[in-house]
Design a protein that fits this description.
Oligomer: single chain
CATH topology: Rossmann fold
Largest sheet: 6 strands, parallel
Strand order of the largest sheet: 1-6-2-3-4-5
Number of helices: 10
Shape: globular
Number of domains: 1
CATH superfamily: Alpha/Beta hydrolase fold, catalytic domain
CATH architecture: 3-Layer(aba) Sandwich
CATH class: Alpha Beta
Helix content: 40-55%
């Protein structure tokens, strides 16, 4: 997912996180060093949850980057932009009965070609993926993001059929955050538009350097990227 982006940000150290849907999980944030958190979709939601429950992580996180991300996914009180809770519930059920079809349909909806090739179902951890779908249905970090007083960059697509523009606006613009939009693309910006993502992340890092948050010579600074192996062709 992040290979094209990290290759273009060669001046930074990268700490890749894997949520374990298609292999061993590596879901540990950087310890005792300053870092910038970059998360895609559910990965951004997961990242915010870690910050919300651990003050030590909050202390070391200098800024956040959301790529196709959101603060809440399902519709509920005060969040009419979300999807029906029935959608992640149906996906969770299908995870056990038709995982190949579930992933194929998701790829198409996310903007990848239908003829991309076989989906790596044998490597899928169905229990872990079902847990991720529970996170989608239940987690809500709007309050934490509204109180976040450090820099935040939000990147999104106006053609995203998974995290719709309405969800994006309700997650960020509703609390005064600016969103940088890419026209006519899908849900997998880091994979499909890595140069555009890297350019904006680099500009964000430069702002942090100008403010004195990041060491311009690298040092112990790091960038934590949430990684989904299932998105790679």
């Amino acid at each position: 997912m992040w290979r094209g982006v990290t290759r273009r940000l060669s001046g930074s150290r990268h700490h890749l996180i894997d949520l374990g849907f298609f292999g061993p999980a590596k879901a540990v944030l950087p310890q005792a060093v300053p870092w910038v958190g970059v998360g895609h979709s559910l990965g951004f939601l997961w990242l915010i949850r870690q910050l919300a429950v651990d003050p030590e992580h909050r202390k070391n996180c200098l800024g956040l980057v959301s790529v196709n991300g959101f603060a809440r996914f399902t519709r509920g009180e005060g969040f009419s932009a979300g999807v029906s809770p029935r959608i992640p519930a149906a996906m969770r059920a299908r995870c056990g009965t038709d995982p190949d079809g579930l992933l194929r349909d998701f790829r198409i909806k996310a903007g990848l070609p239908a003829d991309l090739g076989p989906v790596a179902v044998p490597g899928m951890d169905r229990e872990r993926l079902a847990l991720g779908l529970d996170w989608l249905a239940e987690w809500d970090v709007r309050g934490f993001l509204a109180a976040w007083d450090r820099p935040l960059l939000a990147l999104a697509c106006d053609g995203d059929r998974v995290v719709t523009p309405a969800i994006t606006r309700a997650s960020f613009e509703a609390t005064g955050r600016q969103v940088h939009w890419y026209a006519d693309s899908g849900h997998l910006l880091p994979l499909i538009r890595p140069a555009w993502c890297a350019e904006r992340i680099a500009a964000f890092q430069q702002i942090l350097m100008d403010e004195g948050s990041l060491n311009p010579y690298g040092g112990d600074n790091g960038t934590a990227h949430e990684s989904h192996r299932d998105a790679e062709p």
